[in-house]
Amino acid sequence: MAKRPISYAVLRGEVVETDLIEFGGRGGDITFLAPDPHKISDRIPLASPRLMEDMYSIPFDGILDYLAELGPRLELSRNPYMQEALEYSYDTAPSTKPIVDAFYHDLPFMFDKERIRKMVDFNIGIDHLEGWVEQQLNGCTVGIRAYGSRQLHIVAGNGPVLGALTVIRGAVTRGDMIVKVPSNDPFTTGAIARTMVDMAPDHPITKHLAVAYWRGGDEALESRIYQPHNIEKICAWGGFASVKHVTKYIQPGIELISLDPKRSASIIGKEALESPETMAEVGARIAADFAPGNQVACSSSRLVYVMCGTEDEDIEKLKQLGQATYDAMMSLPEVISTKPKRYDPDLKRQVDTLRLNDDFYTVIGGKDGEGAILISHTSDRVEFWEYLGDRTINIIPVDTLDEVLDVVDAYTQTVGVWPDNLWDTVRHKGALHGGQRFVELGYGFNGAGLVGPQDGIEPMRRIVKWIVSEKPSADKVPLWGDTAKDVKMLA
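Predicted structure:
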């Protein structure tokens, strides 16, 4: 009999594989076993915040050394836990086998010591994590320090790198981490945690990580865990349905850091249509910004606005750009993009309906479920634009930048920009309208990575507690004593 997939619970240095019950993976392709969360619920939270003291026995370089040692141990060739997680993830992941393989292959490189050091210093400032950063202000020595928090991470499953990123963020901030793994990736983070147990079972970072699976919305379980005496921060990835059940537990003492789904877009100047050579380059850039990972990431472009005008000759050129984009998409290596695992049937129905409306739309591809380029003949996006996915984008002609900015809002994450003469204007005006990340067209997936702010907030700064200390200087006039009459209160 084949071995049943197990989503292991790893609780503060101990791997738990008893009291297993069955859960269904997302999409219905697989069921897996996991420890009954109700039987381990008392072991998931940290017993007392006093127990976080051991994280302060480690210098920041010691944390980096731990992560740098962990990275190579996650290489597939030497790690049976990661091999097993990869094999099971083929059924649960939204992406296809070559893309999942690439995710797992690249994951160890996330733990590069200098990469993490630069990320933390850029986002928080290592000096704030290592001690009190002090200044003289208003007659006092005022110090600020970033302290680790007790964190609950509700991780998304659109890529195994998110579990690794969560472990890194929690460790460098000296946090206590509870990771609720998702049903479409219930194996990867547990495999990382099991590796940590084998590597250093008694290390504080290992001891301050709890990984488990439970169904979101299990009120009997969550009402016990989601309490201020257990956690201080909830970092939740996911849509409205995923986060809704969390909001009922938000109260004084618990902060919600919501990394909700975003939609991304591209803004392109009329120069893109100047020649066949330029169209080929811009088409390749568009493909590089929407097709990697089969468009499951929030940073994947869904809408492409080209400021070319809407005359007949403009639309004919736009069709050529669409064909160049389709050709570039189909030429991407399998480790980057493939025919989708299952093309959404509702989306395909909508796309096929557009073919019957060729006065207003041109559809390139999509008949074999491989993805499609939808060319609007007017400045209107397709009615089902919110559901574009599975390598399907809408290219839209407009006359002015203002028409594009009207549809940029707080749900717009990444904006690809081309050519460079649009950069300063789009970056400034787009940010005012709600855009959160601006990249050169074609570099949405080949840029700096998740090293800075995300979704218009700074998650790493949010998951720490910013503590202030104030000590008066020798000449500070007190509120007590004979000189109290000379005190001026400062609002």
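Summary: Residues 263-440 form a domain with the Aldehyde Dehydrogenase; Chain A, domain 2 fold (CATH 3.40.309.10).
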